[in-house]
Design a protein that fits this description.
Elements: H1 15-20, E1 57-59, E2 66-67, E3 70-71, E4 88-89, E5 91-93, E6 109-114, E7 133-134, E8 141-143, E9 146-151, E10 156-162, E11 166-173, E12 176-184, E13 196-203, E14 208-215, E15 222-230, E16 236-241, E17 263-266, E18 269-277, E19 281-290, H2 294-304, H3 310-325, E20 328-331, H4 335-348, E21 353-354, E22 361-363, E23 369-371, E24 378-379, E25 381-382, H5 383-386, H6 390-397, H7 399-415, E26 424-426, E27 429-430, H8 439-448, H9 456-467, H10 475-481, H11 492-512, H12 516-525, E28 533-534, E29 539-540, H13 568-571, H14 579-585, H15 589-601, E30 620-621, E31 624-625, H16 645-658, H17 674-684, E32 686-687, E33 695-698, E34 705-709, E35 715-721, E36 729-735, E37 738-739, E38 744-746, H18 747-751, E39 754-761
Parallel strand pairs: 35-39
Antiparallel strand pairs: 1-5, 2-3, 4-7, 6-12, 8-9, 9-10, 10-11, 11-19, 12-18, 13-14, 13-17, 14-15, 15-19, 16-18, 20-34, 21-24, 22-23, 25-26, 26-27, 28-29, 30-31, 32-33, 33-38, 34-35, 36-37, 36-39
Helix pairs in contact: 4-17, 6-7, 7-8, 8-9, 8-11, 9-11, 11-12
């Protein structure tokens, strides 16, 4: 795999940053989109810009979500459409999630081919039976904003780049009278035969095609519009409709719609466009997306990509990445440290994604067209994952964007007939994935950290309304009984613990805003975590509606034990809002510290996570599951004991085990940037254990130094003295020269600018 092949560098576009960080360094060279594309990372290697609406990337297989009427488990590895171990590419589609554990998207797949026309994708073991092609990682280049590969079976070099809303393709063809571009309007990720509800296409002229498709998948009703233009006219074109026979077809049957017919509609369409090419001729395609209309897609195309200079678009994309990566400039003598750090920065800045046209129009949750006034509308909210560290990271490095994301959530609430903030939402849909109401900690974290250029009281009201919806996921029982009973609603312990934390966030907001009635109500609810703690065994445990603990219980199993994507060992430590109270109820420090130690040192046999897709051996250290989110704060809990040095040792142990600059370098799904945000915070030396609190817990920095270039124009410098792989313990920490007496750091101290100096040692 060729990781580094950057061309022009563009530091002249960043004079202010260049002055602050002399000498300015090309940081894009260290960010590797290929990381996480093998095994469980579920990342994509293709071209996109920071938080871009287009993610133009190769797809390596077209497995169906359904197999013999049931879920096909092989599909899971294709959440991002690409698996590094595959030998063939089916084509290049325009929308992808990064690091998710479920999926959708994969819209509008384009594949260039030569030779006799084929309109089926073929199979991985017999690629010549269709339009797919073999490829080699030796010819593959994956950089931020740019992707390149040779399609060996067609002798075509494919190159991809992007703006926010436009994907740009450049295909270098051989000489051929049989050159084709296939537009597959059937392809998709987590696809199945009935996922396409409807597709509509207009061939406007010999270089312009517009249309839309509507799908019914993870997003129940998702409509995406497009405008596609070619750099040269096609000689002719055609289509094939793979739909099952319709009962009623009107009178369209009088036309031959398979060849040169400009007005197409159906459930399962593939199109082809024919060209004659000379040797090494570059055929270019621009493909714009819109959530509202084909006219807006065309306007997005003309606004963002008016010309045909591929290298110019690529350089602009990489300038954008350089600017975003330069928000943190780290020091390290080891290239691997920079590769891990800036790859994590890259992945953290992929989503949430822009979801509006260049003029601010977007499709809302009510399926009507709205206009974002004074903010950028975002989608792709994987909140069960990203509230933990990604959104807190944005409050440091991307405060304007994070405030816009909160306003996007509030717009979702306004459009919600259920009167709910987002749970897991994308493309004007709520898909109700995972548990809790974790828009709340995102909103609370912004309010508590002073990043709330919106009506904070209105935001609090939305949080309260969401948290009082008795019909949602056992919430009525939770309010009535003080816990979710397992015999009434599954994953009951996880729900109880996560509701209690979210309620604590509401209480913090209410207290800050002077809403004492709300504070009292939710501060009381925040104590509900105590109701599922079984003092006799020392673990959180599912309770039944009659108030008894469920007899059948296994603290190691991740299946049907009252937890979601976790076991009692990991989830029993989930009281991030009050670790001191957790330690007390578990028997005090003398019992808690050995218990926490054993989490990292015991062995979790495979049988205990065999029935869950989201936990694999790659992401486990002892019984600590880093490859999944519920325990991401756990290594920092030693800070609430008299042995904070154990946090320092654990963090420095986790970092190199779970993150490497290789295709299989992520210990689990990146989950829309959460895994990467954990790395960034931890490598810098602090972590947001409880978003909604302005306090960070200190750890052990892995960098040799860093400068945070803040949006407010100030800088926060992290100095690390005596840094080495052996010196993992913090002998002393000073903030602006003053010695810290507690292993904690306040958010405002960062945003004010200044210096945090760690002095490291080989012993605690």
């Amino acid at each position: 795999m060729k990781l580094l092949s950057l061309t022009t560098l563009f530091l002249t576009a960043l004079p202010s940053l260049a002055q602050k960080t002399k000498p300015a360094e090309n940081l894009v060279q260290y960010a590797h989109p290929i990381v996480g594309t093998a095994k469980m990372g579920h990342t994509f290697p293709g071209a996109t810009v920071p938080f871009g609406m287009v993610q133009l990337s190769p797809d390596t297989d077209t497995l169906s979500y359904e197999l013999n009427g049931k879920y096909n488990p092989d599909m899971y590895k294709y959440c991002a459409g690409y698996q590094y171990s595959d030998k063939t590419i089916v084509g290049f589609s325009h929308t992808h999630f990064s690091g998710t554990g479920h999926s959708d998207l994969g819209d509008f797949l384009i594949m260039p081919t030569t030779g006799p026309l084929q309109l089926n994708p073929g199979t991985a073991d017999k690629p010549q039976s269709g339009f797919r092609s073999t490829f080699s990682h030796a010819t593959e280049v994956a950089e931020p904003g740019y992707y390149r590969v040779k399609l060996d079976d067609h002798n075509i070099v494919a190159e991809l780049t992007a703006t926010n809303r436009v994907g740009m393709h450049q295909y270098t063809f051989p000489q051929s009278d049989q050159s084709h571009l296939i537009l597959d309007l059937m392809a998709g990720i987590y696809n199945y035969p009935d996922k396409n509800v409807w597709t509509f296409v207009r061939v406007e002229n010999d270089t312009l095609v517009t249309g839309y498709r509507q799908t019914n998948g993870w997003a129940r009703t998702r409509t995406v519009y497009f405008a596609m233009t070619f750099s040269k006219p096609f000689t002719d074109y055609g289509s094939r409709n793979f739909s099952k026979k319709q009962v009623y077809r009107g009178f369209w049957g009088k036309f031959d719609q398979t060849k040169n017919f400009p007005d197409l509609a159906g459930e399962q369409l593939r199109m082809f466009f024919n060209f004659k090419t000379t040797a090494n001729e570059k055929l270019k395609v621009k493909f714009a997306l819109s959530p509202t209309s084909t006219a807006s897609a065309l306007q997005n195309l003309r606004t963002e990509a008016p010309g045909w200079d591929f290298d110019k678009v690529k350089n602009q994309a990489q300038q954008q990445w350089q600017q975003e990566l330069s928000k943190v400039v780290i020091e390290s003598p080891k290239k691997v440290d920079k590769e891990n750090f800036y790859t994590a920065m890259y992945h953290a800045f992929l989503s949430p994604t822009t979801f509006m046209d260049a003029d601010g129009q977007y499709r809302g949750l009510d399926q009507n067209t709205h206009k974002a006034e004074g903010f950028t509308n975002y989608t792709t909210f994987s909140l069960w994952d990203t509230y933990r560290a990604l959104h807190p990271l944005f409050n440091v490095l991307q405060p304007k964007r994070n405030a816009d994301m909160v306003q996007s959530m509030l717009a979702h609430f306004d459009q919600s007939v259920e009167r709910m903030l987002p749970v897991w939402s994308h493309y004007a849909n709520e898909n109700w994935c995972m548990i809790g109401y974790h828009s709340v900690p995102v909103i609370a974290d912004a309010v508590m950290k002073g990043n709330a250029p919106f009506d904070a009281n209105k935001a609090l009201d939305a949080c309260v309304t969401t948290a009082r919806n008795a019909w949602y996921e056992g919430l009525g029982y939770y309010v009535q009984l003080g816990y979710v009973p397992e015999d009434k609603s599954g994953s009951s312990v996880s729900k109880t613990l996560e509701y209690a934390y979210d309620d604590w966030c509401i209480a913090q907001m209410a207290q800050k805003l002077g809403r004492q009635d709300i504070y009292q109500e939710f501060n009381k609810r925040a104590q509900n975590w105590r109701n599922v703690y079984d003092q006799r065994i020392g673990f959180m445990r599912p309770k039944l509606a009659d108030g008894s603990f469920r007899p059948r219980f296994d603290v190691l199993s991740t299946n049907d034990q009252g937890f979601i994507e976790g076991n009692a060992w990991n989830y029993s430590l989930y009281v991030p809002q009050d670790p001191a109270a957790l330690i007390q109820i578990m028997g005090g420090q003398k019992r808690f510290v050995p218990h926490l130690d054993s989490l990292f040192t015991m062995h979790l046999p495979d049988k205990f996570f065999a029935e869950t897709e989201d936990i694999t051996r790659d992401g486990i250290i002892g019984n600590y599951v880093h490859g999944n989110e519920p325990a991401h704060h756990v290594a920092y809990l030693y800070n609430w004991t008299d042995q904070p040095w154990k946090t320092q040792a654990r963090v420095r142990m986790i970092l190199p085990k779970m993150y490497r600059p290789t295709p299989d370098g992520l210990g689990g799904n990146d989950d829309c940037g959460q895994m990467s945000a954990w790395y960034i915070f931890s490598a810098l030396g602090f972590y947001p254990v409880a978003p909604g609190s302005p306090e960070y817990a200190l750890g052990s920095p892995a960098v040799h130094g860093a400068v945070l270039n803040l949006e407010n124009g100030k800088t926060f410098r992290i100095n690390v003295k005596n840094q080495s792989d052996k010196n993992v313990y913090v002998k002393e920490a000073r903030l602006n020269g003053q010695k810290l007496t507690r292993p904690f750091l306040n958010h405002q101290a960062i945003m004010n600018g200044g210096e945090l100096t760690f002095t490291m040692a080989a012993k605690p």
